[in-house]
Structures are given as structure tokens and as C-alpha cells.
Amino acid sequence: MIAFWCGVALMIGIVLLIVWLPALRSGKTATTDIRKETNIALYRNQLALADKQFSADEKDKILLDELKQEISIGLLHDVNDNPLEAPESLTVPGTDNSVKKSLFIPASMTLVALLIPLLGYSLYGQYSESAQYSQQERMDPFAGMDIEQIQDRVITELQQRIRQAPNDGDAWFMLGQRYLNSNEFNNALIAFDRTEKIRGQDAELLTAKAATLYYQAGQRMTPQARIWLNDALTLDPKHITALMLLASDHFLNAQYQQAIDIWQSLLDSNNPKVNRVKLIEAINMARMMK
């Protein structure tokens, strides 16, 4: 901000110098011309007065010539050394108007030079607010959105990513997860099938497909969901999501000890991805239900 105002001050100074310097010079020249015209008028008036005072004889003519010479010398002296101010009766017509006109342009440009920084500051303030908002939006792209809006935006971005790279298996898998979170189970299965064609089967993908069928059936383990879940645990017996899904099914079917055993095994694994507080709460709840 300090640099901004320093630049403004420098710009105004340059503008004032460019605008007013020629105006002041022209004003000074005009004043000098007025004084010269005034002295010439006075000179002529005094010569005419001298002609009236002297007669036409030779002696008077000599005196008249001497007086005219003195008047000329005196007026020239006034022009060079101490110019006289023009009397009101000898003021050049239109002088005041010309001076005003000569000052109007630099005065107007000075006003413009002062208004431009104010306008620039206003725009700078708006730009700063906009830039700050854009920065906050980049830091938190989901600010002010609810869950559904966030899901829709993420799905849209993933679809755009897939259009650019149709064989991006990770993008297809994340799209399937978003569809699953939005309860769009058929679209989720389509996305997971596409993922499987690109990168093959793994525990993560099989668990996601099993979870899709499980929640689509109203949290009931269908035969196909159980097959996929067992295949996932075969590939990775310690897969957290698969074990959590299996434990949840045991709990909902009143198989509390089986659920407790799975949750306890997850606690004993000391896996940093495990939410220990939630697991302990779940174990205590299952013990109370027994």
C-alpha cells in the first residue's frame, strides 16, 4: 500500500509539472506583452500632449523634439527595468478571458490527475477483496456448500477428469465411491466395473462393490455381496473396510460376539487408520446388547 501511494504522489507531481509549467510560461509572456502595449499607449499619449503644448515656431519645435526624446528614453527604461502596470483604461480587451481560458485546461487536468488515484484506489480495494475471496475459495473449494452440493461438484470434476483421461482407473474408482455416498448404487456399480476392467481386481475394489450391493439391499448381505467380501478378505485378510463391513453385518444380525471379535482384532492391530474411540464405543455397545 505504501508503494501504491508513493507511485501516486510521483505521478501527480509529474502531471502537475507537465501541465502547469507551460501554462505559467504562457501567462508570464502574456503579462509582458500587456505591459509593452501599455507603455506604447502611454508613449503615444504623452507625444500627443506634447504636440499640443508647443507652438509651431522653430524654438518650440526644438524643445518639442527634446521632450519627445526624453519621453522615448523614459518609456524604454520603464519597459526594460521597471515596467508599469497597465491602467484600467488601457487594459487590453479580452485579457482576463484569455488568462482564464489558459488556466482552465491545466486546472481541469489537475483535477483529473487527483481523481484518477482515488478511482484506482477504489478499484484496488475491490480487486483485493476479490483476490482474497479467490484465495479462500482455493484453500476451501467447498466453503458454503452442503453435503449434496459437495457431492455434485466432486462428481462433476471427476467426470471432467475421466473425459480427459478415459483410462484413469483411480478417477473411475473415486467416481464410484461418490456415487455410493450419494446412494446412486447403479451408477456406482458401473464405475466400479469400469475400474475393474482398467486395473483388475483388488481388495479395495471388491469391498466397494460388496458395500454397494449391501447398502442397495438395505444393509443386508446379499449372496453376491458376500462373495465379493470374502474374495476381498482372501486377498487382504487385514483390510480395514472389509472387516468393518463384516462386523457391522454381524452386529445388525445380533451376532454380537462375532462383531466384538472383529473390532477387537482391529484395535489390537494398532493400525493408525483405525478410529479407536469409535471401535471402543462399538464394542461396549455390543457387550451391552449381549
TrEMBL record:
The keyword ATP-binding does not apply. Keywords: Cytochrome c-type biogenesis, Membrane, Repeat, TPR repeat, Transmembrane, Transmembrane helix. The chain crosses the membrane at residues 103-124. TPR repeats lie at residues 169-202. It is found in: Cell envelope. GO terms for biological process: cytochrome complex assembly. Residues 142-269 form the Cytochrome c-type biogenesis protein H TPR domain. GO terms for cellular component: cell envelope; plasma membrane. Its main location: other. This is C-type cytochrome biogenesis protein CcmI.
